[in-house]
Each structure stands twice: as structure tokens, then as C-alpha cells.
Amino acid sequence: MRKNKAVTGIFILVFLISTLIGTSQPATAVQGQAARGADLYRLLAQTGGGVFTITYEPNYVYLGIGPRLYIYYYNYYAPAEPILTGWTTVLPDVVKAVEIVGSFAYVAAGESGLVVINVSDKENPAVISSYDTPGYANALFMSADYAYVADGESGLRIIRITDPMNMEEVGYYDTPGDARGLTRADNYVYLADGPSGLRVIDVTDLANPQEIGDRDTTGYAEAVYVREKYAYVADGSEGLKIIKIATPSTPMLEAWCDTDGYAQDVLVYGLYAYLADGEGGLRIIQRPDDANPDPFEVGYYNTPGIAYDLAWSEGYLFIADFSGLQLVDANSAANPALFAANESNTVPYQIAAGANHVYIADRYQGLRIINTTDLENLTLEGATPITGTAIDIKVEGEHAYLAAGMEGLRIIDVSDPATPVETGVFDFPEQVNAVTVVGSEAFLAAGDGGLYVVDIADPGAPYQKGILDTTGYANDVAVSGEFIFIADDAEGLVIVGRSPLDVVGTIDTPGNALAITLAGDYAYVADGTGGLRIIDVSNPSIPLEVGSYATTGEALNVAIRDGYAYISEEDSGVRVVDISNPAAPYHLGVYKTFGAANGLILTESGLFVADEEGGLLIFNLELPNYKTRLPLVTK
């Protein structure tokens, strides 16, 4: 499982401004200019995003949602659903880890390093400072005076925090792998170093830490928890590893337990080790004892998303589940059960726009509807889970059409956005990746099943009108006039006549055709490693490539407006390319996003981006200024 990394940092000016700006709703707009890297654009609003970390202290839960930190009230003497009390403005990067020391929250913010937030006022937490580490800050261990940072390829960094406004690095040790998680016990830091397993680092002399022991774990060491004379390692696809550290210089593998998912985090309380097991949810493992020398699973709870992080309170487990907060009653280890969940989050994959709403295909939670009437007060107005995985979405009239993967096409009545209701299902294809709607017909890109045409005149009773098996893997579909255009993966662009349903033209592309947009006589193909391909389809039987643009990352999606192409690139944001001359497209600038930008739409309000890690992002367009402003931006 790959964890996407955000691409750039943010100027410290944004931190200082954010301390002066109050917010009144969880999804408030970002005020002023948001700078990511050297390219400068204005982020108008943000909400949602991936959930990677959670921390609990008496009466309060701290949850990272995308690039914001949220604070919830929770009384463990009378367990109930946590109550949201406050949240930060947008931080420079996605929140990967959070720890509390006194009145301050310390956040590991990926490529932006360490961010310090004053949380003395739980309703108005405010960023006060930051320290940019040289690597990618994944995790923290805090003492009163020092922050120990698992900094990705830069290993262990030790930062003095006695004055949060003037932090400084006092020592470091560059580990051989990818520093993912850590803890300190006595004078040793135990570090989960990705492919290099467990590393033991003596920090008696903070200015000169030294590695004294290591143990390969066979998996990808993501996190470590030390209890008594043992280190418990969440070892990715290899599950739980238990390593004896009675002699820190010679750690010895003593026991292990494989799990169904990908072990991301581990906690140990009493007789059990608790694992955040990625897509495997929560797994509860019996620790070895004299009667049972081998650890074994005694219970589990399948969370809806990807379980990344854990916190504990008197038999209850708080789980950072990428899709949101899950609170699980684990007092019965054999039968853990959901106690409460935060259902207000959204993790957008693809999006569609209405007059006052954005409709989101959330792979973990189904359909989410965001009211965008006031960009300073984005709100989740309606939501409904679906059977299957929401991969694509189109909205026509009073209905939303969701491509639901293995569960086909789901049709949802959204005439009342507050109470969307599923009205129809078409589930014959093996895999529905994309949908487009023209009149009373829905066109489905169905993977190995090729193209499906579905009659939706009665949304409650859709039925198949036609099918055409393409030679590749249908990823996306668009329609213009009497022709259907299919992004057919390794087979490139396939053009099909609507009547009869038959292939009339094809053109291979150098990469994998993932998405397609039509404008005038041209088809614009997001071609993965092949970048953007511009194809003249004025004669559908003889499509001709007339231009291309080599993107930095894989081209995942493309939108066209007024002579500009907006290309979502894997882990690189949204690239803007001038296509006024299709034969000679050229780069104008980049909207830097927080993680895996995928879906994008253009409206009069701005550029809307579905970024799974960073949430729903709304940027300004200011198209008239591009030609004069963007060439001045350095990258």
C-alpha cells in the first residue's frame, strides 16, 4: 500500500496570518493568498480529506482531517459521541501525526516538518510557529523539552522545543530506510524504519545520537510501541512483529502474527496488542504468555476506510480511519463494536457540480453533497452510503449517477440535497469505472467489460440497451453527437458510433489512457505516464494526434476551458497548459494540492479539485491574468 506524500511546503507568512483569522465552521474558506511551493494561487475554500492520525488526552480528542487539526470534547467517565469544539485554519500540509505537550499541539506535517499550534483555547486553536525538517515528517515522540521526529528519508531529527517560537535542531541520525514511526524508552529511541525494520538509537548524548542495534522485520516497519522488554512493530503487509529488547544492542525477533490488512499502527494494553490494520480495520491480538507462546487474533472490527492510527481511553479505541473518526468499544476483545463515528467528513475521489452544490464520489462513504452557496461556510448538506465503491459521478437534473465499481451503476434522487435517496440500480457489468449521461441514456466505461449503454428514461428501472467489448480496459467515456469516445487504457482512444454500436476509429497512445475530455474537434486524453495527448477527431474514423504535453507526474484527469487544459497529476497537483495552439501546448503554472489530486471541474466560481488527502479544494481561476502572471512564477 502506498502512502501518498504532499509535494511542497508553505511560506511562514501563512502561519502568522492564520493566527489572526478566526473560523466559524469546519469548512471555512482560506483567507488571502495560499502559497504552496513557488507557484502562487489563491485557495478559496477547503473541506475534508484523509484522516491519518488521532491523539487523546483527558476530555479531548485531536484528529487530523486533511490539512486541518480538529478538536473534540470527550468525557471518558460518561462515554458518548465526541463533540466538535474547534479546528484550525488550513495548515501547510496534511496532518500526519499530532502530540500534545501542555498547551501546545505539535503536528508532523509531511514535507513542511513540525507545526506548533496553541490549543489552550479549544474553540480557536491557532498556529504559532513551525520548523521545516529536511525530510518528510511522519511521526513524533514528545518530551517536555524535545520533539523526536521520524523524518522519512532523513531519519531521526531531534528538535528543542523549550521555546516553541524559536525551535532548533540539536541532533540527528540518518537511518538507512524510511523513518515512519518511533517511541523513546529510557535512553533509546526505537524507530520503525520502513524497509530497514527496527532501529535502536542511543540518545544519551542528544547532539550525537548513535545506532546501537537493529532487526530486520521482513515487512515495512510503520510504527513501534514499547512495553516492558518488548518492541511491538506494525510491519505493514507482514502484520505484527514482537521483538525482545532486553538487550537493546541485540534485539531479537520473538514472535509474530500476520493480519489480513496492512499494519499501520500498534498499541498495547493489558493482555492485548491493538493494530490499525489499514483496509483490515482494527485487529486485536492476544500477546504471548506461558500458556500461549504464539500471538493470535482474538477479535476485529472492520472500519469503512483505512485504519491508520489508534488512541486509547478506558477500553475504548479511537481510530483514525482515513474516512473519519471511529470510536470502538473494545472492552470485549472478542467482540469489539462501533460506539460512535464522525460522519461529517468527506474524502473526495471524483466530483460533479450543480448550481449551489458539489456532489462527491467518496470511495469509502458513498455520495456526499456539499453546499457551496457561501465559500466561507462550506457545509455537508446531505449524504448516503452506497453498495460498492464510488469511483465516478455525474449529475443530470434531479439525479446523481454513481459508478460503483463491482456494484455497477447506482442512481440517486438528489432533488432534496439534504436527503438523497437511491432509486435505481444497474449492476450487470463486472466493473463500472466511469459514467456519462446524455439525455435518457447513461454510458458506462466498464473495465474489461468495455462499453455499456443503459436506458435511464425511468431512473427507477434502468436497463441495458447495448454493449460493446473493447480490446483494452475501459477507464472513461465521453459522448459527442453520434460518437462515443473511450479511454481504453493500454489501447489508447477508441471511437464508437452510437448507431450501430461499433468501433469506427482507434489511436494508440504511448501511456495508459485514463480519462478523456472533448472540446470542439479535439479529444484530450490524460494518458498516465504519456502525459496529455491532443487528438484531432474531426474525422472520427481517422483520429490524428496533433500535440502532446509531457507532465511531471502521471496524468490522471483533464478539464478544458477557454484554451487551457487543467491536468491532475499524481502527487503533483493540477497543471495548467495553454492549448490555444493544439500543436504546441506549453506550461503556464501549477495548482499545488496536498496529495492525490484526481477529479476536477471548472465553474464560474473557480477550480474545484478532488484531492483524497487534502479534501475538496476550491481555487481561484483569474484566467485573464494567466498570460501576464504565470510566466513570472518560478518553479
Beta content: over 45%
CATH topology of the domain at 378-591: Methylamine Dehydrogenase, Chain H
Q: Main beta sheet: strand number and arrangement?
A: 4 strands, antiparallel
Q: Give the strand order, joined by hyphens, for the main sheet.
A: 3-58-57-56
CATH architecture of the domain at 378-591: 7 Propeller
Amino- and carboxy-terminal Cα gap: 30 Å
| Class per helix and strand makeup | mainly beta
Kindly report the name of the CATH homologous superfamily of the domain at 378-591: YVTN repeat-like/Quinoprotein amine dehydrogenase
CATH class of the domain at 378-591: Mainly Beta
What is the averaged pLDDT score?
A: 91
Overview of this protein structure:
There is one protein chain. With 635 residues, the chain is mainly β. It has a domain of 214 residues: YVTN repeat-like/Quinoprotein amine dehydrogenase (Methylamine Dehydrogenase, Chain H). The protein has a 4-stranded antiparallel β-sheet, with no helix packed on it. It has a 4-stranded antiparallel β-sheet with strand order 4-5-6-7, with no helix packed on it. The chain has a 4-stranded antiparallel β-sheet with strand order 8-9-10-11. It starts with 11 loop residues before the first helix and ends in a 6-residue tail after the last helix. The N terminus and C terminus are likely disordered.
